[in-house]
Design goal:
494 residues, alpha/beta, 9-stranded mixed beta sheet, 6-stranded parallel beta sheet, 17 strands, 35% helix, globular, binds 6-O-phosphono-beta-D-glucopyranose, glucose metabolism, glucose-6-phosphate dehydrogenase activity
């Protein structure tokens, strides 16, 4: 469906996120007819920019990052006309009054009924004061709805997240706050729900009687790039673990909601987070969570620098660029089933993948065979390949009864004509529609932080107690030991 008439405010309009993701997402929505004609976008940032310069920025961003290319001409002009720029000192209320006037005239021009969506692509320290100034400047006085869309990181730990949430709640109600976790906008992450609840093949087996373990990998080949300043303070646990990783885990582990309504789904997800077995002592953290940092290494014939040599990183830094953990979900369905998770920078491949390893069949009938029976696997490929893959056992053709694992594969991203929407397209569209399903609710954020804080606290007692791995490898041996001590191993990613 088309979005309702809306003014989108992009705070941080000259920044990286706007350029790489937000302008391209708006353009794709427009090209696909998912954005109603009565929309307007006001780009807000500090630096002065003329309308022409701003529209030129947008054009460049689309040419570089969008799955549709813009062509100079009528269609482009029609799109670009919806964009205006406002240079604003976000701490100065005066500017917000001007912004209100600019907004009202756009609303009049397009017949927009006062619906305003504020996307803050800004440092989180600014969320509170911008919200307050929006209110003081009269930006929330219009008749329609008002929504706040914010990016992670949502706090640094539970305490700071709570503080931030309280600040936001002075101005916005929970149902007006859309916290982005862009992994929830990914096509295949959303598909987990359908795979599970739409298939008699899977859901009846989706429990501790049939599943031996679950492995979730979010690996990246990039290093910290230009984000050393932020990353060195955050680390992999906060950057990927608290949000994307735990969110994916909830999608795999949640109970079927009674309806596919946002609050029902989010209720089920938060129940998973509440069921995570907390690591009670530093020793438990040590035995179940591995952290590591990359050192210099080789990939593709090139030498990659170590993390400590990266720009804006403390040369004595002990920040983790990799972590892996064994997580237990203490509920009826999952009792006894380990979830192994891992994420890292400078790993050999870029992939997001979930492997569900089923319990093996009784092997008595095959005793005495040369080949052991391998367990069935269901592999959900999220990114960059999208699809699913099932590994089953079959007889090797031409042999009497030799068993051979074979793969049944569905590759969504290989299909011609399928051009999956980018996560941000889906999320911006949903926020304008008021559908909060794939945004994280406050209790999810808080519960996730409570779990993560225990790990971070234990680590901070011994900052130097960190493993290392050469850039371009799969992390330290300790990450494999986590599984091996339980009789499992990481399945190679594809
Ligand atoms: C972001 C992290 O949330 O996700 C980055 O801050 C990371 O460090 C990125 O690179 C990965 O996202 P994607 O969509 O490329 O897997």
């Amino acid at each position: 469906p088309k979005t309702p008439g809306t003014v989108f405010f992009l705070f941080g309009a000259t920044g990286d996120l706007a350029r790489r993701k937000l302008f391209p997402a708006l353009y794709s929505l427009y090209r696909e007819g998912k954005l109603s004609e009565d929309f307007a976008v006001i780009g807000v940032a500090r630096r002065p920019r003329t309308q022409d310069e701003f529209r030129d920025d947008i054009y460049q961003s689309i040419q570089e990052f969008c799955r549709y290319k813009a062509q100079e001409g009528e269609q482009w002009t029609a799109f670009a006309d919806h964009f205006e720029y406002k240079s604003l000192d976000i701490n100065n209320v005066e500017g917000y009054h001007e912004l209100r006037e600019q907004t009202e005239s756009l609303e009049e021009r397009y017949g927009i009924p006062g619906n305003r969506l504020f996307y803050l692509a800004l440092a989180p320290e600014l969320f509170g004061s911008v919200s307050l100034n929006l209110q003081k400047g009269g930006m929330l006085d219009s008749k329609g709805w008002h929504r706040l869309v914010i990016e992670k990181p949502f706090g640094y730990n539970l305490e700071s997240a709570q503080k931030l949430n309280e600040e936001l709640n002075q101005v916005f109600k929970e149902e007006e706050i859309f916290r982005i976790d862009h992994y929830l906008g990914k096509e295949m992450v959303q598909n987990i729900e359908v795979l599970r609840f739409g298939n008699a093949l899977f859901e009846p087996l989706w429990n501790n009687k049939h599943i031996a373990n679950v492995q979730i990998t979010l690996s990246e080949t990039v290093g910290v790039e230009e984000r050393g300043g932020y990353y060195d303070h955050a680390g992999a646990l906060r950057d990927m673990g608290q949000n994307h990783m735990l969110q994916m885990l909830t999608m795999i582990a949640m109970e079927p909601p009674s309806r596919l309504l946002p609050e029902d789904i989010r209720d089920e997800k938060v129940k998973v987070l509440r069921s995570l077995r907390p690591y009670a002592t530093s020793n438990e953290v040590k035995n179940n969570v591995v952290r590591a940092q990359y050192t210099q290494g080789q990939a593709g014939g090139k030498t990659l620098p170590g993390y400590r040599e990266e720009d804006k990183v403390d040369p004595a830094s002990n920040t983790e660029t990799f972590f892996s953990a064994k997580v237990m979900v203490d509920n009826f369905r999952w009792a006894g089933v380990p979830f192994y998770i891992r994420t890292g920078k400078r790993l050999p491949v870029k992939t997001t993948e979930v492997v569900v390893e089923f319990q093996n069949m009784p092997t008595n009938v095959y005793l005495g065979q040369r080949h052991t029976l391998e367990p069935n696997l269901l592999v959900i490929r999220v990114n960059p390949m999208e699809g699913i893959y099932i590994k089953i056992n079959a007889k090797k053709p031409g042999t009497e009864s030799q068993i051979e694992p074979l793969a049944m594969e569905f590759c969504q991203s290989c299909l011609i004509g399928i051009n999956s929407p980018e996560a941000y397209e889906r999320l911006i569209h949903d926020a304008a529609e008021g559908d909060s399903t794939y945004f994280t609710r406050w209790d999810e954020v808080a519960t996730a932080w409570a779990f993560i804080d225990k790990i971070a606290r234990a680590w901070s007692e011994n900052p130097g107690d960190i493993n290392h791995y050469p850039a371009g490898t799969w992390g330290p041996k300790e990450a494999s030991d986590l599984l091996e001590q339980d009789g499992f191993h990481w399945w190679p990613v594809n």
